[in-house]
Amino acid sequence: MTIERPDPLTHVMPGPPLAIAAGVLFLANLMILPGIAFIALVWLWWKHRDHADPLVRNHLQQNVVACLWGGAVLVGVSLAILLLGGFANPWTWLVGILYFVLFHAGLIYLGVMGLIRAMNGHPWRFPLIGPALP
After folding, report:
1. Dihedral through CA 28, CA 23, CA 49, CA 34, nearest 10?
2. DSSP state of 131
3. Cα separation, 113 vs 23, whole angstroms
4. Nearest 10 degrees: CA dihedral of 77, 42, 107, 95?
């Protein structure tokens, strides 16, 4: 079975709407609706995990796994920095906040790249934290 994609020269976003929604929910989880957007993303993945379009499955899986790994690493390393350095040490706070801001910004950047790939109808893999493409 072949999937027909719209012509990118005549359509603004030729990618599948579910793949685009996965990217938008990933970014919303990072920026404006943490937790709520994650629950919506997991629900969307659960409902469409066996979708006929491999591109939809790819973007849903990549975004869910990136949310799980990204959140775990972000919280885990931030807590480790705070616990190892002590709450009273100003250098702990400097390193902790710097790490959090840079890692968070990196996840947002990668999420935007994934959203662009979804909009253009191309597969995407998050570097380091995303599962391998089939």
Report:
1. -10
2. P
3. 9
4. -20
Amino acid occupying residue 17 = P
Q: Is the predicted pLDDT of residue 15 greater than 80, yes or no? A: yes
Contact between 106 and 36 under an 8 Å Cβ cutoff? The reply is: no
Which two structure tokens, joined as six digits, stand for 111? 């999420």
- Under DSSP, is residue 39 helix (H, G, I), strand (E, B) or coil? helix
Site of tokens 């499955």: 57
Distance CA 65, CA 67 (A): 5
Q: How many C-beta atoms surround the C-beta of residue 88 within 10 A?
A: 7
H or E, element range at 57: helix 54-85
In angstroms, rounded to a whole number, what is the distance separating the alpha carbons of residues 94 and 75? 16
Q: What is the token pair recorded at 55?
A: 């591109």
The pLDDT tens digits for 34-79 are: 999 999 999 999 999 999 999 999 999 999 999 999 999 999 999 9
CA neighbor of 27 nearest in space, from 13, 41, 15, 14: 41
- Report the alpha-carbon distance of residue 68 to residue 51 in Å, rounded: 21
Cα(31)–Cα(107) distance, integer angstroms? 10
